[in-house]
UniProtKB/TrEMBL annotation:
Listed InterPro entries: MORN_2, SGT, TPR-like_helical_dom_sf, TPR_rpt
One of the record's GO molecular function terms: molecular adaptor activity
TPR repeat residue numbers: 243-276, 277-310
Cellular component terms (Gene Ontology): membrane; TRC complex
UniProt KW Transmembrane helix keyword: no
Signal peptide feature range: 1-20
Record's keyword annotation contains Repeat: yes
Alphabetical GO biological process terms: post-translational protein targeting to endoplasmic reticulum membrane
Protein name: Tetratricopeptide repeat protein
Domain of life, source organism: Bacteria
Annotated Pfam families: MORN_2, TPR_11
Species in which this protein is naturally found: Profundicola chukchiensis
Keyword list, A-Z: Repeat, Signal, TPR repeat
Length: 384
């Protein structure tokens, strides 16, 4: 579709929904009745997803859909639906079923549904699939990202989680795996960083409670912490307990804007554990608010060396660098991630600093930071 046609279609699409917004309409997208927050869901349907639209006010057709009390029916057909095989279109979606007493029923049916189901995003891509036995999920259940990649593989027995579970990042990397027994976690469970490195390994007993060692790792593979549990109860550890006691005191002081006192507490905690990324991050954030920008940047550097995938540390390091150069003629830009940064409205950053700032902001976004302030800073300082 060329850009001009897409623009015209977009305007027509917007006008259509503006005209129908005040009417009592039933929205049907790819044969799915959109009953839950229809306007909100329909807003996700950008023109590039749509094949055609039709508004029907015929009484007989409204009765046929079971909604003769509406002003009309707005049918939307996505491109993905039009390209879908007829055999797949015949498989029902739970979005067109009714959940009653823990069982799924096809509309206007008295018997709970047995058979395959496929759910779709409103934009037409497959969202999930599985099998219902007398209205309850049984066997393997698959979930998908909009890009078609698998997000979840789970197993059910009579609607209760039983068997292996695997969850994945959007890029296909394994995020988590483990086993359920009658709805509770049992045995070894593992979580992974997005780079594929083991993030945490824990054991659950037959009651679904943590048992024995739970070990966490940074994305470099270096061990982060080791905690012991007994039937779900944390077993005291002097080093961990002292470290977190000081950290929590620092957090309380920080919340009272007593930044120097908070920095002292974080420093004491870091003397006990000097390989703690979160400790350096907390101290750096307090230093930013105390306008100690150079020292803050040093602490963010340390946090990132320890944990190269520390999303918030990249964004905050960028804000600290900006704050260093623009503390005068300032305005508040961000209260995000437990920090306040004062930024000037029009000052241009030095080239070398701008390069580092833009690199950090882009890295934060790449790692999943969706904070509006990050995007605003990127637009202000990196648009060239």
């Amino acid at each position: 579709m060329n850009k001009f046609f897409l623009l015209i279609f977009s305007l027509l699409f917007s006008n259509l929904f503006a005209q129908t917004a005040e009417q009592n309409l039933l929205y049907i997208v790819d044969s799915i009745h959109i009953l839950d927050r229809p306007q909100e869901q329909i807003s996700q349907l950008h023109p590039e997803y749509i094949n055609n639209i039709a508004v029907v006010k015929d009484k007989q057709m409204k009765e046929q859909e079971g909604y003769d009390n509406v002003d009309g029916i707005l049918y939307v057909f996505t491109k993905a639906y039009v390209q879908r095989a007829d055999s797949l279109k015949q498989i029902p979606s739970t979005k067109n079923m009714i959940l009653n007493d823990g069982k799924w029923y096809l509309r206007n049916h008295d018997q709970a549904y047995t058979g395959r189901f496929i759910d779709y995003y409103i934009t037409g891509q497959k969202q999930g699939e599985g099998y219902l036995q007398q209205g309850k999920v049984n066997g393997k259940r698959m979930m998908y990202y909009k890009n078609g990649g698998i997000s979840d593989i789970v197993h059910y027995k009579n609607a209760v989680l039983n068997g292996e579970e695997k969850r994945f990042y959007e890029n296909g990397t394994l995020l988590q795996k483990g086993n359920f027994t009658n709805g509770v976690k049992t045995g070894i469970w593992e979580m992974y960083h997005i780079n594929g490195v083991l993030k945490q390994k824990s054991n659950f007993n037959t009651n679904g409670n943590l048992e024995g060692e739970s070990i966490s790792f940074y994305s470099t593979g270096k061990q982060k912490a080791k905690v012991n549990y007994k039937d779900g109860a944390y077993q005291k550890d002097q080093k961990i307990d002292e470290t977190f006691a000081l950290y929590n005191e620092g957090q309380e002081l920080y919340s009272q804007s007593k930044f120097k006192a908070a920095i002292k507490k974080y420093s004491e905690a870091l003397k006990i554990d000097n390989n703690w990324a979160e400790g350096y991050f907390a101290r750096a954030t307090a230093k930013v608010n105390n306008l100690d920008f150079d020292e803050a940047i040093e602490d963010y550097n340390k946090a990132i060396v320890i944990e190269p995938l520390y999303t918030e540390a990249y964004a905050n390091r960028a804000f600290a660098s900006i704050g260093k150069h623009e503390n005068n003629n300032s305005r508040k830009l961000s209260d995000s991630k437990e920090m306040t940064v004062q930024l000037a409205k029009n000052t241009k950053l030095p080239v070398a600093s701008a390069k580092k700032v833009c690199s950090d902001l882009n890295k934060a976004i790449e790692l999943g930071d969706d904070n509006l302030m990050v995007f605003e800073a990127l637009e202000q300082y990196c648009k060239n």
